[in-house]
């Protein structure tokens, strides 16, 4: 698609602003990405500079000083870090097991479906019955596997850096809501705090969404097969896999994790997930003891399943 990188647009012949004025407010490429993502989720989407910017906009829009956010344990490490940045302004952050009912005192229930990297899923019935604002990070599910607004979320959040763009070449985030007032609040936060997405990243999102429905089942098919084979491998102590999408986490002995993560050649030893090329890494490196020392997070790409398995087997053979 044609990317309009303008930061400003002309007023009309009467001197009035048109739909696009200044890039931080809105721009045509973001508007197109938002139209497409909103249609997939059945709501109104907004794109942000990153998933983290989207989370920041949620806090500025819906959390007042003194508010309690109940965050799913084992959710993306950085989300807790971002939320705790607001503690000096009076935000209270508590973590809870999202397979159980959220703490009754929470003003905001922040679930992740599935949590990255522990891959637990929220108890939707308990979340729906809670009464607080429900935020669901659906980065790993994507709208192909989860329409979180239909499950009871008030705000869906994505790191579009992952599956939605899919090629590891764009940092972008998004929210989707069904309530125009909430969309307006998020839009104002984006504008006033400076959280907008760049046009090139928005263009990557448009392109990524064009192939999302084809990529996701292939990620699932390959990940499911690798999870099955990993389960049976003697060097693997535990496999976590939610049954869909492309993230499989497996535990090896703590002393072996470095040998395994550096032992692949097709699968890249790097962070992030959701790309067409497979990658893996130890999460303990980043998250410390909240994560098992031997946990390896594998993001299964679109390569041939046999080639991926051969690569994994070779790396696992290096474990003692
Ligand atoms: N949510 C999840 C589940 C993630 O995995 C990540 C990044 O790893 C984020 C949010 C943050 O997104 P970004 O890196 O685009 O800011």
Judged by helices, strands and strand pairing, the structural class is: alpha/beta
- In spatial order, strands of the major sheet run 1-7-6-5-4-2-3
> How many DSSP E strands?
12
Number of helices: 11
CATH topology of the largest domain: the name is Aspartate Aminotransferase, domain 2
Helix content: 25-40%
- Shape category: globular
Reported for the largest beta sheet, the result is: 7 strands, mixed
Explained architecture:
It is a single chain. The chain is α/β, with parallel strands linked by helices. It has 2 domains: 28-211, Aspartate Aminotransferase, domain 2 (3-Layer(aba) Sandwich), CATH 3.40.640; 212-316, Aspartate Aminotransferase, domain 1. It contains 11 helices and 12 strands. Helix 3 links the parallel strand 2 and strand 3. Helix 1 (28-41) runs parallel beside helix 8 (199-231), helix 2 crosses helix 3 (77-84) and helix 2 (51-62) packs across helix 7 (180-193). The model has no long low-confidence stretch (mean pLDDT 97). The protein binds pyridoxal-5'-phosphate.
């Amino acid at each position: 698609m044609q990317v309009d990188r303008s930061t400003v647009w002309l007023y009309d012949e009467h001197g009035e602003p048109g739909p696009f004025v200044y890039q931080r407010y809105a721009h045509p490429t973001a508007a197109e990405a938002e139209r497409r993502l909103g249609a997939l989720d059945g709501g109104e989407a907004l794109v942000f500079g990153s998933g983290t910017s989207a989370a920041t906009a949620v806090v500025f829009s819906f959390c007042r000083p003194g508010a309690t956010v109940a965050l799913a344990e084992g959710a993306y490490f950085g989300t807790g870090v971002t939320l705790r940045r607001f503690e000096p302004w009076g935000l209270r952050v508590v973590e809870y097991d999202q397979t159980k009912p959220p703490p009754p005192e929470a003003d905001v229930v922040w679930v992740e479906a599935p949590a990255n990297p522990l891959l637990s899923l929220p108890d939707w019935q308990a979340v729906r019955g809670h009464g607080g604002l429900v935020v669901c990070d659906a980065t790993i599910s994507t709208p192909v596997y989860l329409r979180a607004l239909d499950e009871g979320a008030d705000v869906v959040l994505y790191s579009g850096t992952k599956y939605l763009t899919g090629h590891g070449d764009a940092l972008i985030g998004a929210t989707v809501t069904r309530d125009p007032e909430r969309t307006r609040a998020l839009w104002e936060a984006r504008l006033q705090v400076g959280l907008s997405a760049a046009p090139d990243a928005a263009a990557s999102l448009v392109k990524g969404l064009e192939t999302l429905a084809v990529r996701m089942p292939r990620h699932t098919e390959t990940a499911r097969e690798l999870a099955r084979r990993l389960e049976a491998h003697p060097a693997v102590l535990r496999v976590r896999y939610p049954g869909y999408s492309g993230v499989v986490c497996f535990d090896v002995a703590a002393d072996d994790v470095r040998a395994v993560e550096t032992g692949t050649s097709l699968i890249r030893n790097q962070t992030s997930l959701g790309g067409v090329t497979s990658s893996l890494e130890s999460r303990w490196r980043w998250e410390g003891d909240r994560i098992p020392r031997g946990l390896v997070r594998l993001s299964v790409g679109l390569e041939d399943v046999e080639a991926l398995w051969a690569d994994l087997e070779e790396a696992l053979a290096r474990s003692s």
